[in-house]
From TrEMBL:
<dbReference type="GO" id="GO:0022857">
    <property type="term" value="F:transmembrane transporter activity"/>
</dbReference>
<feature type="transmembrane region" description="Helical">
    <location>
        <begin position="346"/>
        <end position="370"/>
    </location>
</feature>
<feature type="transmembrane region" description="Helical">
    <location>
        <begin position="268"/>
        <end position="286"/>
    </location>
</feature>
<feature type="transmembrane region" description="Helical">
    <location>
        <begin position="292"/>
        <end position="311"/>
    </location>
</feature>
<feature type="transmembrane region" description="Helical">
    <location>
        <begin position="137"/>
        <end position="158"/>
    </location>
</feature>
<dbReference type="InterPro" id="IPR051788">
    <property type="entry name" value="MFS_Transporter"/>
</dbReference>
<dbReference type="InterPro" id="IPR011701">
    <property type="entry name" value="MFS"/>
</dbReference>
<protein>
    <submittedName>
        <fullName>Major facilitator transporter</fullName>
    </submittedName>
</protein>
<feature type="domain" description="Major facilitator superfamily (MFS) profile">
    <location>
        <begin position="8"/>
        <end position="376"/>
    </location>
</feature>
<dbReference type="Pfam" id="PF07690">
    <property type="entry name" value="MFS_1"/>
</dbReference>
<dbReference type="GO" id="GO:0016020">
    <property type="term" value="C:membrane"/>
</dbReference>
<keyword id="KW-1133">Transmembrane helix</keyword>
<feature type="transmembrane region" description="Helical">
    <location>
        <begin position="164"/>
        <end position="182"/>
    </location>
</feature>
<keyword id="KW-0472">Membrane</keyword>
<feature type="transmembrane region" description="Helical">
    <location>
        <begin position="96"/>
        <end position="116"/>
    </location>
</feature>
<keyword id="KW-0812">Transmembrane</keyword>
<dbReference type="InterPro" id="IPR036259">
    <property type="entry name" value="MFS_trans_sf"/>
</dbReference>
Length: 376
């Protein structure tokens, strides 16, 4: 059964929102869990590497499932698993269990990412204007709200387990409400090959998004720790940089479609990389509360439009069908989102946390370079 564009859009938007809320809930409590298990920065980085391991394990499964079963069933099942895995992260009482739970969390996150963006492509096709960025804006808005909830929980001394359980319950309820309004996309195309090699243009788009999402992933996992250990923020202020970044990321994504239409896709991506670089260097050079908050505002604005614009461009590929192109670019880019945090942990252990943020600034420069070379 088909529903109106507005109803379908609302259902897909809810999936994006809950996916963002689940991940933000985990990110907002990483420092708490690090303290609970008495992990060093290097040890935390090693544990966080379980996330990209889970992603890599899910790559063939997620691609096959979306192609053969349909993104509707996959996004519902994967988002439910995402919520359950979140609860398990709060329950983990040793490094081994936390690592195992993070692996499952990473597996679910990639399955959600690929399937929900495939749903977004189908929804955008129902409109005569681009709306992809607005979906990602809701994901970021959920990150902002999740950060606020996490900050509140920290301030009240509420442990991660009840916090995560509440988020998981809301997630399951949302899935049940929106299930019948999602796109039924199991069609003859699903009888084709599950894996298609992306061409050079799609790989370039993937690399642009990869670099940006390295920054985004690190901001999720390390901004709170940076504010606690480098900026020396106290109490609830340790989440100020993360909250500021999420706020400006959400705002940027809600205006990204307009900006890209007015100034062009290439210029939008170049400006995005520049803003990210400036923001990260500000955080490194001026590691005090107000400048650091402003720096993260720039970072949030810089990374806001990259992923939705790249996905939109990939959906217009002339060599692959939109769903396959989105899945290919999404997989490359989300790998950066999950690899970034553990890399920062290793660099922080090898050098310092401030030095590791210079690496993130280099990723911002890379966005500018790849965008300049891209044929878009």
């Amino acid at each position: 059964m088909k529903y109106s564009p507005k109803v379908a859009r609302a259902a897909v938007a809810a999936m994006f929102f809950m996916a963002g809320l689940v991940f933000a809930s985990w990110a907002s409590r990483i420092a708490t869990i690090q303290q609970k298990l008495n992990l060093s920065d290097a040890a935390l980085g090693a544990v966080l590497f379980a996330l990209p391991v889970g992603l890599m394990l899910s790559l063939p499964l997620s691609g096959w499932a979306v192609t053969k079963i349909g993104s509707r069933k996959v996004v519902a099942a994967a988002l439910a698993l995402y919520g359950v895995a979140l609860v398990s992260l709060g329950l983990a009482d040793n490094v081994f269990l936390l690592t195992c739970c993070l692996t499952v969390f990473g597996l679910a996150s990639n399955a959600v990412n690929i399937s929900v963006n495939t749903q977004a492509v189908a929804t955008e096709a129902m409109y005569t204007k681009p709306i992809m960025a607005s979906f990602h804006g809701l994901w970021s808005l959920a990150g902002f709200i999740g950060a606020g909830i996490g900050t509140f929980m920290i301030g009240k001394g509420i442990l991660p387990t009840p916090h995560f359980t509440g988020i998981a319950i809301v997630t399951i309820i949302t899935i049940f409400i929106c299930w019948k309004y999602l796109h039924h996309d199991h069609n003859p195309e699903s009888t084709g090959p599950a894996f298609v090699k992306p061409d050079k243009s799609l790989i370039t788009l993937g690399l642009i998004a990869f670099c940006s999402m390295v920054i985004e992933g690190a901001m999720f996992d390390w901004s709170v720790i940076y504010f606690k250990k480098i900026v020396l923020a106290q109490g609830a202020w340790i989440g100020a940089g993360y909250t500021a970044g999420m706020c400006f990321m959400a705002a940027g994504r809600f205006v990204a479609d307009w900006f890209s239409h007015k100034f062009g896709l290439k210029t939008t991506l170049q400006v995005s990389g520049f803003l990210s670089t400036v923001g990260l260097l500000t955080v490194v050079v001026f590691p005090t509360l107000v400048p650091a908050i402003i720096g993260f505002m720039f970072v949030g604005a810089g990374i806001s439009s990259v992923v939705p614009m790249v996905y939109s461009a990939a959906g217009k590929s002339t060599t692959m069908k939109p769903g396959a192109a989105i899945a290919a670019v999404s997989t490359i880019s989300f790998l950066g989102f999950l690899i970034g945090p553990p890399v920062i942990g290793f660099l922080a252990g090898l050098f310092t946390l401030k030095i590791s943020f210079i690496f993130l600034a280099a990723m911002g420069v890379s966005v500018v370079v790849f965008s300049t070379k891209a044929k878009i």
